[in-house]
Design goal:
Number of helices: 2
Number of domains: 3
Order of helices and strands: HEEEEEEEEEEEEEEEEEEEEEEEEEH
Strand order of the largest sheet: 1-2-3-4-5
Structural class: mainly beta
């Protein structure tokens, strides 16, 4: 039997037109949905970034304002630290205050500045501390705002306004996102004054923007320390705005941290977390240097805390005395003579170079030899330090025995601080009877002898110790 013949007919023209029309409608709808999704994703990312920066600034500025007792709002005002950023840096607000713990007073300076970095304008927080007011020490830096608008274009005429103790700082991002952070200082100061806003809270954003909550802990400060005071940086302490998840510490957490500019071989050996603080133990560092000015710290973890890149640590490591030796240029060991010198080697150069007045004082009246004698070097020793006995020969008429070199010189060469005696000793009645002495000497640094961050010099080994005496008695 023959099979029926298959039809050679295809679709009709009407069916083809309907298929093309329906396909076009479906493709158009799909394309519109994809474009809208991409746009929403981009908008969401922009808003997340805007919200993140807002919260980052809120983590710092209100607390700084609460501490401040004075503020400076001119665009050209300096940071109060030793570095005020690039020439194009614009000051928004610089804050200063002092805190006294026990007998020591520490001065603080914080400055919020808009400056170019990494191809964008950033809001950078400078902070420093020290014994002087303002501190004038090296600042720690952290970028707390990104992708800002060029401060010469579109910013409010007065981005910082004050009213009594209240301060409001307005920040403009390149996207047009505008927000203001307000806070209160401890005392009123003179600035650009406007009518006080009715609100007393934190953040105001443009009506076209949506703020999304970001619960991640944000970095506040990274400190570097010398935990065993041997002159080697062996610890980093990172403080965040909120308690850290447990996953940010423990086994494997060291892989979330990276170091740049560290001495060769330096690694993060372990990370422990306690509340808002992560403590990093360093290993492999053999460089005797408590400054490490080129060190940068980055965190790119996945433990729930906010990432940060290239944070400059704040130096919390005091300069450590490594050696104390004397140089006998005059030829008589134990006798202070022209060009004799005392050389103190530290783990980093001191920041301040005092004008060294050297004074040797006998406790008696000069009528008896072998009396206790002290050495004072203004700005270098912590007052009068015992240096043994018998510096004066006992034949001088009383009163005598206060020999002084008022034009002694102090110089710094690398980490070495050298005090050198000139030829002139006054008064003659004391200097003529100044002889060699015997005894031991331990250097106690003056509390004003500090590094650029204001950390006082320490001498944990009490050098020179009784079992490692200097070659002769002081000079």
């Amino acid at each position: 039997m023959m099979e029926p013949r298959r039809s050679d007919e295809g679709v009709t023209l009407i069916e083809l037109i309907l298929a093309i029309t329906l396909s076009s409608i479906i493709l158009a709808a799909t394309f519109t949905a994809i474009v809208a999704g991409l746009k929403n994703t981009n908008d969401t990312n922009v808003r997340l970034n805007e919200s993140h920066d807002t919260q980052l600034v809120e983590s710092y500025l209100p607390q700084d304002l609460q501490s401040a007792t004075s503020a400076f709002v001119a665009k050209t005002d300096p940071t109060g630290c030793s570095n005020s950023g690039p020439a194009s840096s614009v000051n928004l607000v610089s804050l200063r205050w002092a805190e006294t713990i026990g007998a020591a007073t520490t001065n603080f300076a914080v400055s919020y500045r808009v400056e170019p970095a990494s191809g964008e304008w950033q809001l950078v927080r400078y902070s420093c501390r020290g014994s002087a007011s303002p501190p004038g020490t090296l600042p720690g830096k952290i970028a707390v705002g990104h992708k800002l608008r060029n401060p010469s274009s579109g910013w409010p005429t007065t981005p910082v306004t004050t009213c009594g103790t209240r301060v409001e700082v307005t920040i403009l991002e390149d996207s047009g996102y505008l927000y203001a952070i307000t806070g209160n200082t401890r005392t009123a100061f003179t600035g650009v004054t406007t009518t006080c806003p009715a609100a007393t809270t934190t953040t105001t954003v443009a009506s076209t923007s949506t703020t999304l909550f970001d619960p991640r802990p944000l970095i506040l400060e990274v400190d570097m320390r010398d935990a065993d005071t041997d002159g080697i940086i062996d610890q980093l302490v990172a403080t965040f705005s909120k308690p850290l998840p447990a996953a940010c510490g423990g086994l494997g957490a060291e892989s979330m941290w990276s170091l740049a500019g560290a001495p060769a071989g330096t690694t993060v050996a372990s990370v422990t977390v306690a509340g808002t603080v992560a403590t990093l133990a360093l290993a492999g560092n053999t460089a005797v240097d408590t400054a490490l000015t080129g060190l940068l710290v980055s965190f790119t973890g996945s433990c729930g805390a906010d990432d940060f890149i290239n944070e400059h640590p704040v130096d919390q490591a005091p300069p450590v005395v490594l050696s104390v030796v004397s140089q006998d240029a005059g030829g008589t060991a134990g006798k202070a003579e022209t060009d004799d010198a005392l050389v103190i080697t530290l783990s980093e150069p001191p920041a301040n170079l005092p004008s060294a007045t050297v004074q040797v004082n006998e406790s008696g009246d000069g009528s008896q030899p072998n009396q206790p004698v002290t050495l004072t070097i203004a700005g270098i020793t912590n007052g009068a330090l015992p240096i043994g006995t018998a510096y004066f020969d006992g034949s001088a008429p009383p009163p005598c025995c206060d020999a002084k070199w008022s034009n002694a010189t102090a110089s710094i060469a690398g980490p070495a601080l050298t005090v050198r005696l000139p030829g002139a000793c006054q008064p003659t009645v004391a200097c003529d009877h100044l002889g060699a002495g015997a005894g031991t000497f331990q250097f106690v640094p003056a509390p004003t002898l500090t590094d650029p961050f204001g950390n006082p010099v320490v001498n944990p080994l009490h050098l020179p110790s009784t079992d490692t005496p200097i070659p002769f008695q002081v000079f």
